[in-house]
């Protein structure tokens, strides 16, 4: 192992047009304690990510291919995967106050490996932004067909972009407004539509579409939010304690997956269709469609937000340029809106399945490094105490790339050939155990250590220094 001494690990003044401590959302530094929020404020946003039209689409998709109890077990297995990932990765993010892509530098991936993760996150959530924008636009198009679907895609996508420009606090207020409206509508839709049918008949309904296995269903469930689960630190860095992370995860995922997902299954059985717009129109009319499509905003803003953070970290890691979050958000928002207009929703299920087996290994490796192997944990602990980033970071870690690649391939093979188990869980566990074994065999080494460019005025460090001075 060698150390790159080309540039000193000292603080530099912010470059012109870059994002530094003045950015309220701290994309490349630790979130100070004074900027943390009560658990309920963050939990509403977590639940908001799982309470939208897409969750009904997910339930309807499983209802078309599985019996009710088959869908129940698919949701159970998929939800367990998501909760485990969210809790462990989220606790790491809360402790360190760092975004997913930045935290990955010291949790097994190194500078260039984290850049790759940033790109994976950016591309994946860029795709999700397009998917959600298309769902939003389809709902509005069903109400006002005078505007073409592609026109609604542009209008809704750019509208969400303007919201994300306001940052974490504005997105929180959006969730507080839309979540209660969505829950009220979900209860109304269930009451109106299911009251027309015998509950026993609905629970015994056979699938009305192409059959899928429970394992495939679980992978679809995990895939529906696995990128959001892996990027949990982007949200939990604003939490105050481990208990807060656990509470918001259990409440958000349990309600979002079980209650809303299974409601989508029953509604699909009731109207014999996986067309979500048709389901909601049959259940609650125009007002229902309007509320539900509006509810996509609270998850789509996080897609765009985390995609922007991922790209910012990737670019800073590779070429040392600190992009402005506002500019990145605008570019992603415009391109994502155009992608939605081009019809990205058409391959929805395939898109989820791919995410369900490729992304989980990232979380498996991060959790294994942070909680078990701890190769770089001392550096994180020492720097956290002073509110700064570690002085050095690994360039890249060969063992990590091998483990990640192998786990992803195994996950894909499990899904493609219907091997035993849940592909998403298989790939996550294989990556985690593989990394731990590599650590035990002393194979986890960086290619070299690189100096870290510290922010000129890190907010967390200033907060700690001010507290020490006051004492």
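^ Assign residues to that structure.
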């Amino acid at each position: 192992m060698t150390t790159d001494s080309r540039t000193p690990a000292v603080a530099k003044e912010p470059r012109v047009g870059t994002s530094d401590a003045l950015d309220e959302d701290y994309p490349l530094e630790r979130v100070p304690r004074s900027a943390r929020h009560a658990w309920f404020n963050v939990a509403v946003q977590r639940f908001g990510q799982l309470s939208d039209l897409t969750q009904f689409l997910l339930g309807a998709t499983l209802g078309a291919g599985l019996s009710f109890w088959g869908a129940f077990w698919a949701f159970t297995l998929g939800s367990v995967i998501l909760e485990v990932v969210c809790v462990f990765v989220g606790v790491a993010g809360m402790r360190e106050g760092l975004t997913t892509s930045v935290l990955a530098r010291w949790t097994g991936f190194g500078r260039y490996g984290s850049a790759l993760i940033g790109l994976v996150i950016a591309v994946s959530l860029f795709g999700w932004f397009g998917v959600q924008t298309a769902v939003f636009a389809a709902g509005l198009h069903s109400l006002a067909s005078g505007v073409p679907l592609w026109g609604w895609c542009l209008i809704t996508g750019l509208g969400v972009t303007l919201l994300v420009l306001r940052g974490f606090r504005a997105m929180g207020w959006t969730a507080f407004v839309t979540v209660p409206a969505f829950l009220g509508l979900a209860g109304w839709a269930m009451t109106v539509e299911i009251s027309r049918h015998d509950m026993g008949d609905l629970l015994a309904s056979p699938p009305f579409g192409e059959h899928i296995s429970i394992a495939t269903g679980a992978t679809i469930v995990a895939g529906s939010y696995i990128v959001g689960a892996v990027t949990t630190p982007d949200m939990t860095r604003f939490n105050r304690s481990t208990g807060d992370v656990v509470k918001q995860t259990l409440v958000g995922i349990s309600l979002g997956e079980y209650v809303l997902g299974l409601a989508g299954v029953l509604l699909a059985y009731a109207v014999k269709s996986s067309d979500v717009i048709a389901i909601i129109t049959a259940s609650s009319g125009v007002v229902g469609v309007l509320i539900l499509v509006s509810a996509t905003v609270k998850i789509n803003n996080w897609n765009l937000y985390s995609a922007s953070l991922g790209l910012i970290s990737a670019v800073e890691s590779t070429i040392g340029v600190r992009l402005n979050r506002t500019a990145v958000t605008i570019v992603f928002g415009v391109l994502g809106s155009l992608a939605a207009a081009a019809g990205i929703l058409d391959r929805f299920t395939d898109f989820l399945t791919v995410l369900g087996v490729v992304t989980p290994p990232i979380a498996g490796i991060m959790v294994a490094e942070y909680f078990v192997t701890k190769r770089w944990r001392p550096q994180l602990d020492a720097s956290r105490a002073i509110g700064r980033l570690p002085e050095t970071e690994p360039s890249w870690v060969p063992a990590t790339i091998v483990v990640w690649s192998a786990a992803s391939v195994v996950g894909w093979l499990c899904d493609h050939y219907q091997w035993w188990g849940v592909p998403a869980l298989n790939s996550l566990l294989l990556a985690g155990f593989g990394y731990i074994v590599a650590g035990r065999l002393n194979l986890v080494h960086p290619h070299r250590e690189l100096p870290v460019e510290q922010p000129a005025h890190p907010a967390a460090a200033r907060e700690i220094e001010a507290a020490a001075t006051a004492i």
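DSSP finds 20 helices and two strands in the chain.
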